[in-house]
Amino acid sequence: MLATQRRTNILLGQLIAKVSEQPLPNANPNLNQTQMAPLDENDFVLADGSNLLDVPRHNTPTIYAIALAKAMFTTEELENGMVSPKAGKRKSRTALDPNQVKKIKRLIQHQYKLDEPKFKKIWPHCRRSINQGGNDAKRKADVEADVEDE
Questions:
Q1: Which residues lie below 8 Å from residue 103, measured CB to CB, with a gap of 6+?
Q2: Is the separation of the CB atoms in 61 and 50 below 8 Å?
């Protein structure tokens, strides 16, 4: 499992490098393509006072997405929830707060300077990583509970 995640992260990093070198079709040459609307810092301050903009940027968006999810959601929320579950597929896990997920998306786009087409290629990998992190946490909690029962 870990080897697969590493391969995914390496491939994702290569994809980002490749895609960011290509100019956008019909792009205005007077505009810097990496410029994005500035973030309103107040939108990314959590209830406990921590700022999501302080979460360190990682080499790959998938690892950064996991770090943001861990900062935004409790372990229990990650274990019992998932990013946009498909209807009827996983009844045991509910959807994570969509507003919080939007913040994760916006921060990934901002930190990695991704336009919409690039982001659409990368987001499914990030979503899968967040969901897998919840699966791993749930599995770890189940194993610990079994050990305590013995």
A1: 43, 44, 52, 68, 72
A2: no
Please state the pTM of the whole predicted model: 0.67
pLDDT in tens, 89-110: 656 778 899 999 999 999 999 8
* Residue 102: its H or E element: helix 98-111
Of 68, 46, 48, nearest in space to 127 by CA: 68
The residues with which 35 forms a beta bridge, in sequence order, are: none
Q: Could you read off the pLDDT of 18-54 as tens digits, one per residue? A: 655 454 444 444 434 444 566 666 677 776 767 787 8
Pairing of strands 81-82, 94-95: parallel
CATH superfamily, with its number, for domain 45-148:
BEN domain (1.10.10.2590)
DSSP 6: H
Question: What's the chain's length in residues?
Answer: 150
Gap between the Cα atoms of 132 and 117, Å rounded: 24
